Every structure is written in structure tokens, then in C-alpha cells.
Automatic annotation (TrEMBL), chain A:
One of its GO terms (cellular component) is GINS complex. Keywords: DNA replication, Nucleus. It comes from Triticum aestivum (Wheat). SUPFAM superfamilies: GINS helical bundle-like, PriA/YqbF domain. It holds the Pfam family Sld5. The keyword Nucleus applies. This is DNA replication complex GINS protein PSF2. Residues 187-199 have a biased composition (Polar residues).
UniProtKB/TrEMBL annotation, chain B:
It is found in: Nucleus. Pfam families: Sld5 (PF05916), SLD5_C (PF16922). GO terms for cellular component: GINS complex. This is DNA replication complex GINS protein SLD5. Keywords: DNA replication, Nucleus. InterPro entries: GINS_A (IPR021151), GINS_bundle-like_dom_sf (IPR036224), GINS_Sld5 (IPR008591), SLD5_C (IPR031633), Sld5_GINS_A (IPR038749).
Automatic annotation (TrEMBL), chain C:
GO terms for cellular component: GINS complex. The lineage of its organism: Eukaryota, Viridiplantae, Streptophyta, Embryophyta, Tracheophyta. This is GINS subunit domain-containing protein. CDD domains: GINS_A_psf1 (cd11710), GINS_B_Psf1 (cd21696). Residues 146-196 form the DNA replication complex GINS protein PSF1 C-terminal domain. GO terms for biological process: DNA replication. Keywords: DNA replication, Nucleus. The keyword Metal-binding does not apply. Residues 49-134 form the GINS subunit domain. It comes from the Eukaryota. It comes from Triticum aestivum (Wheat).
Amino acid sequence: MAGQSDPHLSLFSPSEVEFVAEDEIVEIVPNIRMEALNMICGDFGPFFPQIPSKVPLWLAVALKRRGKCTIRAPEWMTVERLTQVLDAERESPREFQPLPFHYIEISKLLFDHARDDITDAYLVRSLIEDIRDVRFHKVETGLETISGRTHAVKLKNLSAMEVNIVRPFMVRTLQAFYKHDSPQMIQQADNTGSRSTPVTDRGPRRDLRRR
Amino acid sequence: MSSWEDEDSAAASAAATTDVELLKRAWRNEKAAPEILHFDSALVSRAREQIQLLEETLDDFTDNGVDDLVVSLYQMDLDRTLFLLRSYLRLRLQKIEKYMAHIANSEDLLSRLSQQEQRFAKSCKEIMEKHLEQSVLSKLPYGYDSVTRQSLSSTEDDMVPEPQLDTFVFCKTKSDVGAFQLDDVGEEVVDLVADDLYVLRYKSIKGLVEAGRIDLI
Amino acid sequence: MYARRASQLLKELDACEPGQLVVFNSDVFDQVIRECGEHNAQFQALIRKMVEQNLDIETTRNEDHYGAAIHHLSLLRNKRCLMAYMYNRAETIRSFRWKIGPVLPHEIQEKLNFSEKEYFRSHSSAIKSYISEMDIDLTVDMVPPKDPYIQVRVLEDIGEVSLGDHSVSLTKNSLHFLRRTDAEQFISQGLMEEFLE
């Protein structure tokens, strides 16, 4: 997204978004035998050669990098499905197509570490980039249509990375309209104490909050 | 107004979720919420126990020459859990730092803190007050030297920073909430559907967050 | 023009890179404190004058009343600026504890006034107490963990190297799957690079 954004307002760093995505379950085909893993994050395995097994993405990538398995690309990550999604994205300017919440992080991790397990990997990647672009553009346009005091925005099917990137802009836009439309508060200070100048404090509470 | 006390569904979803998932949710909610949330001491206790157990298991493994691969994988599981726990605790400390006076002056807010956090909050506040007293307040004329009020003519604590509860947050509900009233007057009603993403004012959904019906993302 | 000096302090804060500090401006700070004293003196004088004229301070609205009001409000504004200055600097100082640690480098120490140095030390202690009470170090693990092993390509002939309980032959252009901690020393010397498959 063009323009500056306060990374603090994004809340999650890109590596934190990726960290959360790494818990998504994917299917692997091991080429080794390994006993069950009873981990804090869950129980997985036992693993047998050529028998598919479901594990979190971080575990799948770790095994793949050590040459112990192949990763089965998720069924949404095919040229056919992604072409459908891209067409649908282009045809509906106000809706987002359903995609896994972490589709961006999942595809990135698979491209980085398991490219050979993805059929037509480069075409798949290019389709995903196009989908991202179309969706970002939709979010930007959507922001422009917020023209008054809005109390709720529905962003059906927006993904994790997209949420994180749009967050600062969205919050700032909504907050700005919210503030400007609310009635000004004029406080009458009730004066007591020895320093009793009959002075009224005008305006909303002052505070030391940094802008 | 929908009822929040749907204990059955809450219990069911709790049983099905690992402590890592719960910790992750607590971490995300804490990151996104403008105010400090309730300390989940049961969750933190359980997580620490599991971490300790795994650390001991890993020591055993290396002593008994267990396969390097298996050790690596458990190590990663441990690292990930530790990161979540540390992040969660650190986030809360930093929130306490940010709103130390506001928190330390409120019984309600203090009750959301663990005992150690309460001690920290009170220390923070004392240290800050001493610093402000020393550098600024002691040099100002009588009547203007309060740390919480601008002057004697202030009718309330008008110099204590507090979080903006009406800030907008991104959220998702796990199950349908249905028609939900966002404001006091009934002019702003939203239909909250499961798994849909909404951007709402935090203040409106505070109760739902506390009840675990809605997740901040 | 009242409160202009106080604004200068705030402008300095604003102009600074977020997360950084400029040198504590004790000159302007002291001037603002002095200004506060002057406002207070003027305020007192005007109130006294009204009292001597047997005017009800609460209800009278003459030029002295408004004069007093201006001094009071100017003092308040100066106070808010001074407090904001110290408070926001304190926020940055606290962040140093998390980002840097319990000991600050000389370049940063130079920018703090005496009270700020003390503040840093005390606040650092409070964090340390919490960490020791909880028995968990919160100053590490600031970013999500990665796989402890990385894929590397050797850039220059290094030869046989003993890593843990086995040795590896690090010849130029060879690829290896090593512990990040083992590889770091070579990477930082430019002898090796991490690479993605």
C-alpha cells in the first residue's frame, strides 16, 4: 500500500504473522519412519514412509528441509483453482473471494522451501501475486468510500496479511470520522480550593497522550 | 441482546483447543486490545508446566542419544511455545508501563493483573512520580504541583493518560452472535456472523472479548 | 508571547526520530520553569489587588480578573508542556531497557538529565524484579523463533571444521545444513552465506 503507515499500528510484524500461519495444518508424505511426536502444540504421527500425515506447516517445512518428506500442496494452490479465484476477484469489485486466512504466508513458505512439490510453481506464484494485487486495490477503494461516521465495517474473507497491512489506514480513517462527527464537549469546571479563579476549562480533557 | 453465558459451547471449544492455541489467542487479544485484559493465570501455569516438562524431556533425550532429528523438532516446539509465553507477558508489562498511573489507581484494573504484575505496576508508578516530582513538580508554584491534576482548580485527575477504549479493532466471532447492539441508544446494530471479519469500536465488544465469544485479530 | 518556549520543547520531541532522544534541553526547560514563577507572581499580585479593592474574586469580571485568568492558563499550559516533555522522554527511556538492556551506551547517557538517569536505573530494577519473581527472562526472544538449522553455501575454502561431535569439510561452493549458531561466525566473516532452496 502506498503511503506511510505506522508499523506500531500494524500490531503484528510480518514475521509474527508468519509465525501464526506456521501452525496451519498441511499434509506431508514422509520418506522415513518416525515415532509419534507428543508436543505442546499437539500430537502428530507416528510417521510411515509413503503414508500421508497431517502436521503443522512449521513441522512440515522442517522435515522437508531435512529431506525427510514431500509436502502436498493444498488443494487451493493449483493453477485451475487460482485462475477461478482471480477471475472471480476481478468480476466482483466489492467482494473478496474465500481463500485460506493465511494464504499469503502459506504460499510464501511453500515457495521458499518446497517449490518442487508444487505443480507449475511459477505460474501458481504469479496467479497469487495477481490475486493479492486485485484484493489490495479493492481494499484501497473500499477505504475511499468511507465518507462519514461509520460504526462497523465488514471485511468478509480478508486474509491475515491483508488485515495487518490495512489496519493502520482503516483505524485512522474510521477514527478520524468518528472524532469529527462527535459533539464538542464543553466542561464547566467546578472551582474549589484556594486558587479559586472563576475560570472555566474549555474543551475536552487534556492529557499527555502523544499524538 | 444475545446471551453470553453459553457455557456448553465455551467448554466444548476449550476442550478441543490446545494450550498453545489458547496462549496464541490470549496474545493476539492482548496485542489488539487498547486496555489491559484479565491475566489468564491458569493458562500461564499450565504452559509453564508443559515447558518445564519438555525441557526435562529434551535433557533426557540428549543424555540418551535420541535421534538428532527428533530432538530438533521438539526443540522447535519448545521455542515456539516459549516465544508465545514471553511475548504475552512482555506485552502486558509494556501496557502496564504505558498506563501505569491509570492502572495503579484503579482497583478494577489492578484486579486484572497477576500479583507480580501488581507489584510491578505500583513500583512503576512510584518511580515515575518521583521522577516527575524531582524534575518538574517540585519547581512549580504551590497549587500547581500535583502529578495527577493540572491545578487545585481541576475537578478530576486530568493528567493521567488512559487508553482509548473507542478505538477501532479488527475481530472475528467463532460462532454466530446475531444482532448485536454497538451503542447505548440502539441506533447502531450489527449482525455478527461466525467467521466473518469486522472492524468495530473496542468499547462496543469489550464484553464479548472478555467472555471469549469474539477474537481480536 | 506566552508558552512559546514551552512549545519549543515539544517541537524538539516531535522532530526527533521515534524511539530516539535528543539532548535534554535544560536551558529552555529552566526558562519555562522561570516563566511559571513569573506567571504565578503576576497572578498573585492581581488577585491581591482585587482583594484590596474589596472585590469578590469569585464573581468579579474586570480586567484584573481576566489578566489573572491568562496567567493561570499560561501556567497550566507550561505545566502540561513540561510534563509532556518529561513523560514522553521517559517513555523512550523505558523502551531502551527493552531494546538495549540494563546498561546504556555513553551516547545515550549524554542525552539524559540526572533525574532521567536515575529513572532509567530504578525502572530497570523494577523490570529485573519482575523477571526474577517470575523466573522467566522477558528480554530475550523478541522475534519469533526460526528453525535452528539453516542451509548455507560456502564462499571460500575453509577446510575441515569440527562442529559438535562430528567434523565437516567446508570446501568452496559446497552446501551444508548447519546449526545457525555454528554458521553465524562464518557468515559474519563473509566466508559463508545462507541460501534458500
